[in-house]
């Protein structure tokens, strides 16, 4: 999974604050940029510009939140998967997402923030997560569409992150990408079964494609002209390709897959340009995207409510675990004393 | 194997498969809603193992029966009165404390059962048990550790798991029932002796309850019937949810 909206102009934090830079800092920044340019990895204890740190905390934590919130729309079908094989695959997938969340939070913690702090921001509604998860999953085909399209888009975004200049993030992404590409194949295989199935199943598959296509294109974030932080993030090698480049790659890869399924992409303007070798596609409705970012998507409230409920209902469990650990420690101290 | 023995083994395998499936389903209801991220992953992982066991067991049950029913036919096309799981595992999750108590009472049984089934004279069952026992050893550690944390945690957590224990204890008797057909399986060395299984389970449960500062409830009246298809009201809803797609689209392949 992935977070878009990272580059929206309303975002705070990535621009270096306008203040005087001391000579020492200038030297450190120069050295830092040299290392980044030489493709060396930056590690947690290395000096880094404050803006670099803030950008990474924001991006990695949004990515982690997306994994956690993303468990909800897919978890919605775990109890209703139509075969035991599909049930096991979906359970394993949702478990993978939880694991991704866990090591992304750990990667963020190497930058000096705590997981509790980050989760607190999510529950308070202050942190962003990928707005793709604010769409509902009313039918089983949505599970296929999420795997095929949402994970497919995520992979386009994430493979370049395996070469991100920040070591812990890059290493986490290597493992995540491996799992995501498995999920993507699984999702496509699920769609294939539907597309080759009964007329009702095929209808279900087409309906899911209709609903997920445009939100998937929006996952790459605003168009390059609208994107605020691209150039700085590119220089820092947090970002390697522009939003529009990645979106185009996704469309080029996905259209033939839809054709193979015998499904129609819901874009009357979609056509192949033999001259460029790329598919051209219609204009994205950014109004919808912006409304969802503002909290007006079909499931924004439900997703955060579900996370809050899980957290609040679990408070007594976490308190008990802490109390028990303290008792154990006291016992150990007494014995040692 | 004689026809009688085969039928008895079919019935036993179905009971164990259904018990794994229903408990796996209950745990999977936690997916995305657990008290912390690590637990979300752990509960999902245990659910995954249990559904995995169910698949092996139901597949084998279908083979023993010889009527062409595969794992999905058995899981998705039977109504409540044909399900044979223990009543314990169909009890609702309620809260994390209930879930952990239910899980521990089951896991302590499963680890002792599978450990013994590894030596079953039925090779297929022994093979399934050998795979399952490695996983249920982790399950019982996980649920046992949590029971200790909650029992010996705060006053609130202690009260919650003590309540759950009292509520769920009457469902434990069913795990040690053996009908006549199963007695024949015991005699043939296919199944372990239920009395010995119960003794091992009791010892394991008492040790953990002691550490959790929880009193062992008295063995009073025990709820029974799941193994014969007589269930609580909860199972119907569980199956309605689980079986929705194959029931709504009976001709579809997924």
From TrEMBL, chain A:
UniProt-listed InterPro entries: Aromatic_CoA_ox/epox, Ferritin-like, Ferritin-like_SF, PaaA, PaaA_PaaC
A Pfam match is: PaaA_PaaC
Q: Out of the domains of life, which is the source?
A: Bacteria
EC number assigned by the record:
1.14.13.149
Q: Where is this region: Disordered?
A: 1-24
One molecular function GO term is: phenylacetyl-CoA 1,2-epoxidase activity
Supply the SUPFAM superfamilies for this chain.
Answer: Ferritin-like
User: What keywords were assigned to this record?
Assistant: Oxidoreductase
Q: Which NCBIfam families does this UniProt record tie to the protein?
A: PA_CoA_Oxy1
Checking PANTHER family in the record gives: 1,2-PHENYLACETYL-COA EPOXIDASE, SUBUNIT A, PHENYLACETIC ACID DEGRADATION PROTEIN PAA
Q: What is this protein called?
A: 1,2-phenylacetyl-CoA epoxidase subunit A
TrEMBL record, chain B:
The encoding gene is paaC
Q: Name one Pfam family in it.
A: PaaA_PaaC
List, alphabetically, the Gene3D superfamilies matched: 1.20.1260.10
Protein name stated in the entry:
Phenylacetate-CoA oxygenase subunit PaaC
